[in-house]
Amino acid sequence: MFTASRSARPARPPNRPDAGPQPAVDSPGRVDGMVLDRVVLDRGARSVFAGLSLTLSERRIGLVGDNGSGKSTLLRLLNGLLLPDAGTVTVAGLDTRKERRRLPATVGFVFQNVDHQIIFPTVREEIAFGPIAQGRPKAEANAAADQLLARHGCAGWGERAVADLSEGQKQLVCILAALAAGPRILLLDEPFSSLDLTTRLGFAARLADLDLQVVMASHDLHLFDGFDRLLWLKGGIVAADGAPGEVIPLYEADARARAAANRGQP
Ligand SMILES: Nc1ncnc2c1ncn2[C@@H]1O[C@H](COP(=O)(O)OP(=O)(O)OP(=O)(O)O)[C@@H](O)[C@H]1O
Questions:
Q1: Sign of the CA dihedral with 208 first, then 59, 192, and 128 last
Q2: pLDDT-based confidence at 191, cuts 50/70/90?
Q3: Signal peptide: which range, if any (predicted)?
Q4: Is residue 43 a part of any domain in this protein?
């Protein structure tokens, strides 16, 4: 457990040396890892990261922090949707600036806003798209999409129009579409916010069983149960980094103190 101040290289705990980009490894239980090295990023006129360095090698990593603290921006750097203004981001050995096109085959992403993700009219097309783009025959990808839907309690959804689904159902389709492509790394940005409790609990349990690396941003702190590591982002810096059981009390105490201070203001 450690806290870090705004600096080009936040301190790392001794048991997490910066080993640099890791080679891709396919053995179960191993992760490819991601490395941010002195990342600088402005969005509009706003500086979001001013020299962020992180090595992300645990299998389950959570991101917490206030609105605007940089969680989505960090995830978008990891999937290559955003490129750093300075510094480097390396994902499973791929420099996102130089090898952006190779990232979709490795990194799955579930957007915070489903409308930014869904592009096809029907559920089956949406889920089958990733495998087809990777070269899988269409009939096979469609059949796999239907099987995936059935496994998640959505048998018969293949022909449904995505536009007619509820927000939570759309979110479910987005998660299944990300999984269908068989990523080794899954980035989830508030993936369960619209899901009902039963579906949310089911997914949280399935997430624990998936043999891939997961980085998930959420305001639902219960979802980090069983995670290996939790990063608290505050204004683009890592305010705390450690086991969820250590970081969550710090984050909650800070949030309560600030909420109380705000109440005291006119
Ligand atoms: N498209 C954009 N253009 C300009 N600035 C942006 C854009 N998206 C985000 N920002 C800014 O980047 C900073 C980080 O935003 P980000 O979306 O990463 O926060 P977040 O922690 O994911 O917040 P939330 O919990 O609300 O999802 C904020 O100051 C925000 O105003």
A1: negative
A2: confident
A3: none
A4: yes
